[in-house]
Nicotianamine synthase (Gossypium trilobum), 319 residues
Amino acid sequence: MVCEKDPLVQKITDLYDQISTLDSLKPSKDVNMLFTQLVLTCMPPTHIDVTKLCKKVQQMRSKLIRLCGEAEGLLETHFSTILASYDNPLHHLNIFPYYTNYLKLSQLEFNILTKHCSNVPNKVAFVGSGPLPLTSIVLASFHLKTTSFHNYDIDPSAKSKALRLVSSDPDLSRRMFFHTTDIMDVTNGLKEYDVVFLAALVGMDKDEKVRVVEHLAKYMNPGAVLMLRSAHGARGFLYPVVDPCDLRGFQVLSIFHPTDEVINSVIIARKFPMPKHCSAEHPVGPMKLPNKCFDIDMLNPLLNHVNLMEELDIEDQLS
Ligand SMILES: C[S@@+](CC[C@H](N)C(=O)[O-])C[C@H]1O[C@@H](n2cnc3c(N)ncnc32)[C@H](O)[C@@H]1O
């Protein structure tokens, strides 16, 4: 159990105390300084397992994740508005302070996706794209140049801001679409996608994340791929952690924990194929799926990549 006496937890708690008393989380010198300190404090590999925090620290973590999510949204809105003032916004994305992080995260996600998918996806959904949909823009611009991207965001202002950024680009304006909706209200439409990306900030705590994943498991096409963003170590104070055990309905194919300035861990999973004894007309209820769960650190604390398909015998059990 990790409690408030841990020196790293004390430092994070001190930063939380300062951030939680700010009048506003809109970008400013103070906000930028505090969040930069928080990210630098949480980045290095550490012994801390955020699933084993004492109640008081867990409560602080839940509030801190929400503050980080609010600040991230405000930062993206701020820079999306500035970018919209350019004739060609997409030529100036590097004014966003975390642009290189997105370049690296998208490269990582593309590498992991192509390792597990032989075909180039035709249609991709990005859930939680925001007012500055950098992941979709970077993937569409540099990696998946024939793929169409459907971006979903619950925030009504996200669509208009995002459209202003891509509408000046003849290619992206034909391949990128934006939908204002809670992803929990999208049902059969999810079947159209070969790949669904789930932003780290969709599902801000374990229960919310599980509800979103269960919804995706219910409506995604059998065999379609789900790319999730999680966090590892003290980075779990910045973002929700996705537990592979919660991905019922999916085969977890691999989990990657970056150790550089890319903050999010990446999980790739595939929706189980339809079992042979059932069909769309005669669907089974929630499958009691084999789901060998274990703490990845049990394998090796320094291990930052696990190809679970070598570990799991799910394929045999489904054949
Ligand atoms: C701040 S963005 C971060 C994504 C980032 N722009 C990217 O390209 O990876 C996260 C977005 O998720 C959206 N969101 C949160 N819950 C959602 C839900 N249930 N359905 C759709 N969008 C959601 C928020 O409105 C927010 O704009």
In short: Residues 55-83 form the longest helix (29 residues). The CA atoms of residues 154 and 181 lie 5 Å apart. Residues 7-93 form one domain. The chain is about 40% helix and 15% strand.
